[in-house]
Amino acid sequence: MIKLSVNLNKIALIRNSREGNYPDLLTHSQTCIDAGADGITVHPRPDQRHIRSEDAFALAEAVSVELNIEGNPFAGPMKSDRNDVNDYPGFMEIVRKIKPDQCTLVPDNNAQLTSDHGFDLHEQGEALAPIIQEIKQLGCRVSLFMDPVPEQIQLAKQVGADRIELYTGPYAEAVKKNQNIEEVLQQFFHAAEYAQDLGIGLNAGHDLNLLNLPRFSQAPGLLEVSIGHALIVDALHYGMTVAIKRYKNCLN
């Protein structure tokens, strides 16, 4: 059974548009869990544009399912520009204190609107290896955000990652434009098969939705998808509980 981890970033983004704590992340995370979500994902960026560091700590205490924390392991401390928001302590400091079930490392920065590419391990593998080992020693599963490139996946295995999360943006774009869908999909399926051969686990995420997810869910060895933006948009239409059940149906 492929697991669904719900990314709560966009709920936090709505909350942050006004003062106060509405909508409440803990309430909505529990709604997701009650509806069948297998995990909760958060991506606390240094600018704290959506999920804040204190959110991650609160969710770690509250959620009863797998907690997946995404972020750039090289992101250091950053002062908050708001009196009511704590300073960002640095990504690794969050991980060390929370010890999440899964830590997904992503090569993003504050200038990016969203994550839009995987690691180049020729460039960053040497620096990542000791970080991966430290996170694993904390008892966390480590996943690397990767493009569907077999050579890079092999390097992910070499630096010690337990899993990779395939960046599915190009597949989603192909479906959206109705262009080269099978060609792009087969690139991802080949990468999935290669990961299986190496013995590295497979996750996937980015712009997956009710339209493109059923076909992608057939990727060999797929264990988990992390979905936020599209699922929250669908929740506005269907309600959160129904939206999650629809996504679960796509996977199973």
For the structure shown, list the relevant keywords.
11 helices, TIM Barrel, alpha/beta, eight-stranded parallel barrel
CATH domain topology: TIM Barrel
With strands numbered from the N-terminus, the spatial order across the biggest sheet is 1-2-3-4-5-6-7-8
Q: Which segments are poorly predicted (pLDDT under 50) over 5 or more consecutive residues?
A: none
The overall pLDDT average reads 95
Q: What is the count of helical runs?
A: 11
- The best one-word shape is globular
Reported for the largest beta sheet, the result is: 8 strands, parallel, barrel
The total number of structural domains is 1
What does this structure look like?
- The chain has an eight-stranded parallel β-barrel, surrounded by seven helices.
- Helix 2 (25-34) packs across helix 3 (53-62).
- Strand 4 (102-105), helix 5 (121-137) and strand 5 (141-146) form a beta-alpha-beta unit.
- It has helices at residues 9-16, 25-34, 53-62, 91-98, 121-137, 150-158, 169-177, 181-198, 213-216, 229-238, 240-251, and strands at residues 3-7, 39-42, 66-71, 102-105, 141-146, 163-167, 201-205, 222-227.
- It is of the alpha/beta class and 252 residues long.
- It is built from eleven helices and eight strands.
- It has a single domain, classed as TIM Barrel.
